[in-house]
């Protein structure tokens, strides 16, 4: 039988996972090893922390797994049937249709936009000024995703789309924290608010579909039903905004703590930041049939999850796992040990875009200025759907030199 906490220990584990999820996941790996199993509410879960098993679920035996689980059903309340939440034939067809929009050459063509948008932000900074980098990066990545999807500055247009995306994000966080999340169909104030924001965001996106501007990711979605296009666009906005903002905030904090790395290659700095602070801390799959993982049988219907947070600091696969060392990426990591974007046919469609965007922003920032952490601020993580910084992160602007 797969090992794991039982009885009172299982209850303690659940409380631990609620109060300190990242620490609890690490303790589970230390106490039980690379595979374990426990019940959370009515649901039995298997956790795997063995890169080869992760590689098997995501890639080698991916046909045996889908996303039929409470977590993805809940995400579906927000994202409809976009690429993250769809499954089977619908997912396969949509992924094939959308893939060309994220082709390397098309994403490379966004570099001038990324540089300009970053330079416009920098032009508002003065040496000596103290800025909240977390908030600045949220604003910057919203402007960039708006340009990439619609060729528009969402903030400057001020049609409410930025505010609606952030409100939807807040609503998602609240529901995911609940032990018994219910679909937002009740006549309560919170559910009404959710439905209103959702309607508003859909209407705003529908308007953009009717009045397309330029050549962008939206134009690559022509030919699919409008409702499907809206689901895909909401998915891109929610998946491609805060994740990149978090990466940038953590990277800037790490560079301030390790100034010698400011001259290093920013692409490697981004990868090392994604290792230490993976924006998606946990993800999982549902087994369509029996399988064998880490030498244990796994039953049909079993939910199997893993955690980039744990895998990326697994002492068997990383030397000095807590250290910030971008040069470790001079070598390829062991397959399945570095999965900030998952892997296999359902890996993040925006991975090349996200890394290019973060790398280009950091390079542009470095050319113009240095950001220094105001001392006394711990790098505290708020583990929500994404691992985001807790509150503001204050940094001082200095001219580059
Ligand atoms: C650093 C930034 C990002 C990280 C860490 C990240 C991470 C991930 C992860 C872990 C998954 C797999 C989720 C799962 O299996 O449930 C995923 C899927 C996805 N991501 Fe990202 N992502 C990032 C940026 C983006 C961007 C910029 C976009 C689009 C503009 C995007 C769009 C998507 C989509 C559409 C999927 C679903 C793919 C599929 O199942 O076919 N992501 N992402």
| Biggest beta sheet attributes | 5 strands, mixed
N-to-C CA distance: 60 Å
Number of DSSP-assigned strands: 12
Using the alpha-carbon principal axes, give the shape: globular
> Quick one: CATH superfamily?
Cytochrome P450
The CATH level-2 architecture is identified as Orthogonal Bundle
- CATH fold assignment: Cytochrome p450
Tally of distinct domains: 1
Whole-angstrom Rg? 21 Å
Main-sheet strand order equals: 1-2-8-5-3
Q: Give me the number of helical elements.
A: 16
Helix content: 40-55%
Task: Provide the β-strand percentage band.
Answer: 5-15%
Q: Report the average pLDDT across residues.
A: 92
Q: What are the secondary-structure elements, in order, as H or E?
A: HHEEHEHHHHEHHHHHHHEEEEHHEEEE
CATH class type: Mainly Alpha
Poorly predicted ranges (pLDDT <50, ≥5 residues)? none
The secondary-structure class comes to alpha+beta
Bound molecules: protoporphyrin IX containing FE
Structure characterization notes:
With 401 residues, the chain is of the alpha+beta class. It has one domain (7-399): Orthogonal Bundle (Cytochrome p450). Helix content is 49%, strand content 12%. It contains 16 helices and twelve strands. The protein has helices at 7-19, 21-32, 51-60, 70-79, 88-98, 104-108, 111-122, 133-150, 154-157, 161-177, 189-210, 226-239, 242-257, 266-276, 308-311, 351-368, and strands at 35-40, 43-48, 65-66, 130-132, 283-287, 291-293, 296-298, 303-306, 369-373, 381-383, 387-389, 394-399. The chain has a five-stranded mixed beta sheet. β1 (35-40) and β2 (43-48) form a beta hairpin. The longest helix has 22 residues, at 189-210. The model has no long low-confidence stretch (mean pLDDT 92). The chain binds protoporphyrin IX containing FE.
């Amino acid at each position: 039988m797969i090992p794991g906490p039982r009885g009172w220990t299982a209850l303690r584990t659940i409380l631990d996972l609620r109060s300190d999820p990242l620490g609890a996941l690490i303790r589970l790996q230390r106490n039980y090893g690379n595979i374990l199993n426990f019940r959370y509410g009515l649901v039995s879960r298997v956790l795997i922390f063995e890169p080869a098993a992760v590689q098997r679920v995501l890639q080698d035996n991916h046909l045996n797994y889908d996303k039929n689980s409470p977590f993805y059903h809940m995400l579906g309340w927000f994202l409809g049937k976009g690429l993250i939440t769809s499954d089977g034939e619908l997912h396969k067809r949509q992924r094939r249709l959308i893939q060309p929009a994220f082709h390397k050459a098309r994403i490379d063509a966004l570099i001038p936009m990324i540089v300009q948008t970053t330079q416009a932000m920098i032009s508002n900074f003065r040496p000596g000024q103290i800025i909240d980098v977390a908030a600045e990066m949220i604003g910057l990545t919203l402007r960039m995703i708006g340009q990439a999807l619609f060729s528009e500055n969402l903030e400057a247009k001020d049609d409410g789309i930025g505010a609606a995306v952030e409100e939807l994000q807040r609503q998602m966080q609240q529901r995911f924290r609940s032990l018994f999340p219910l679909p937002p169909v009740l006549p309560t104030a919170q559910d009404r608010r959710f439905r209103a924001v959702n309607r508003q965001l859909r209407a705003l996106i529908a308007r953009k579909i009717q009045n397309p501007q330029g050549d962008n990711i939206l134009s690559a979605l022509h030919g699919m039903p409008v409702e499907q296009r809206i689901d895909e666009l909401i998915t891109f906005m929610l998946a491609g905004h805060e994740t990149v903002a978090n990466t940038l905030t953590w990277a800037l904090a790490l560079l301030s703590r390790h100034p010698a790395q400011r001259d290093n290659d920013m692409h490697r700095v981004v990868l090392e930041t994604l290792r230490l602070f993976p924006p998606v801390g946990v993800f999982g799959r549902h087994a369509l049939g029996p399988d064998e993982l880490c030498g244990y049988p796994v039953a049909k219907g079993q939910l199997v999850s893993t955690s980039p947070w744990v895998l990326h600091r697994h002492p068997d696969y990383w030397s000095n796992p807590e250290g910030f060392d971008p040069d470790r990426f001079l070598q390829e990591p062991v397959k399945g040990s570095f999965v900030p974007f998952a892997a296999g046919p359902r890996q993040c469609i925006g991975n090349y875009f996200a890394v290019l965007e973060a790398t280009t922003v950091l390079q542009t920032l470095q050319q113009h200025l240095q950001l220094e952490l105001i001392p006394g601020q711990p790098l505290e993580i708020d583990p929500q759907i994404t691992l985001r910084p807790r509150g503001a992160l204050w940094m001082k602007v200095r001219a580059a030199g």
